[in-house]
Design a protein that fits this description.
Helix content: 25-40%
Distance between the termini: 13 Å
Oligomer: single chain
Radius of gyration: 14 Å
Number of domains: 1
Shape: globular
CATH class: Alpha Beta
Largest sheet: 2 strands, antiparallel
CATH topology: Aminopeptidase
Length: about 110
């Protein structure tokens, strides 16, 4: 989990950083597809693409999870404040909101 969180946190993905958001989306798409989820990418021209993720066996699901892949941090923040663990805490842009939550969602998908 921490390796994936580190990978995501070290990607600049501010709200206006389409390239970074799309990179995170690409990583998550690959991860979820490896668990047999269907992942549709909704292309966006000016902002990061959106993902619609549904398990292949879920025909009328009763759970909807809405999450975001962007952060509030400007470009260059990931390089200035990269992921790190001190004691029992992790630090870095987006580590608490929302990148760790995205990893948790992925991990719980096959638990």
């Amino acid at each position: 989990m921490l390796q994936l969180v580190e990978r995501l946190v070290n990607i600049d993905s501010g709200s206006h950083t389409k390239k970074g958001i799309d990179e995170i989306g690409s990583i998550l798409k690959t991860k979820f597809e490896s668990l047999d989820f269907i992942v549709n990418t909704v292309e966006q021209q000016n902002y990061g693409n959106q993902l619609v993720i549904q398990h292949r066996d879920a025909h009328q699901p009763h759970i909807l999870v809405v999450a975001h892949m962007d952060t509030v941090f400007p470009e260059g923040t990931a390089q200035k404040r990269p992921f790190k663990v001190k004691g029992n805490r992790a630090y870095g842009p987006g580590v608490a909101d929302m990148k760790s939550s995205l990893v948790e969602l992925f991990m719980r998908s096959f638990a």
